[in-house]
Fold:
Amino acid sequence: RYWMALPNYKVGERLRITGVVSTEPIVYENNQRVSIEGFNAYVDLYPRIYYGDRLVMEGMVGEKQKLLDPKIVNQSIGGNWIYTLRRSIVSFYQRSLPPRHAALVSGMVLGSREGMSQVFWEQLVDAGVVHVVVASGTNVVLVGGFFVNVLIIFVSRKKAVVLAMLCIWFYTLFSGFDAPLVRAAIMGTIVFTAQVLGRLSSAIRALIISVFIMLLIKPMWIRDVGFVMSFAATASLMLFESKISRLIFRVPKIIRNDLSTTLAAQIGVLPILMFVFGRVSFVAPITNTLILWTVVPIMIVGGLAGLLSMVYEPLAAFVLLFAYPLTNWFVFIVNM
Structure:
């Protein structure tokens, strides 16, 4: 399936590609990386390209699905209300918090790297906490759990679960439709479907089924680092977290859960980090243990403030201030 999905283009062939930017562009100091129709292209920093924009781009086919010497022929701003609303919330974060703090909240809540400098990104990589500042399975768990608990007040549990599944997929689309989010959304759908049908669900089985479905639909995801790391980290957590927690039973309970979670995830992602980035952060278990407790509160406060910003921005800005001490601690640990 993977080999059949490979584009039938020769290296050096010139192309004109038309498509919608389906994942969040990565902004560097001097350029931005855009993924479109299976190709990665590095274009000038301006005009800025956003998730949901429609592009007409020319370039030459390079190795490893790169588009060399890319030129944007036409750019249409994403007119879909979902994309517009997403940009509006990210702009609200940027107006209400200092740059690094706004970038952290945007990344954790919406998976956006808008406004995150290359220097800060490298610091996150060196500290081994870059996985925390992107939307992931944790977001999906929070969204699903929140809507189930709210909706169950008004409707039956089965209807609440079905509506929560729809909310999960809306959030996945809203936050960039990246591979880790899609994987978590499929797993959440499997678990919720089992609840509706009154069946037991197996987490490891749900993970395998979700990966199979993703690669069946989009086999090129097998080359996506985010997809591979998401699968490896999730599998490691399922297989090793409880065992590690029992081994370190003498560690104070207040940090035991975060430490066992970090160590378990590192077992899966360490080989990938070494292969892809050529470097490993030996302080990652420590930094993750020190900052993991801030992630969920930041997501909750940031998400609530983002929703309120659509109604009354001054109140939303006040609510967002409660995230500042947490993001300040996060930035302090990363800078150590």
Notes: The chain is about 60% helix and 10% strand. The beta strands are 14-20, 26-27, 31-36, 39-44, 54-61, 66-76.
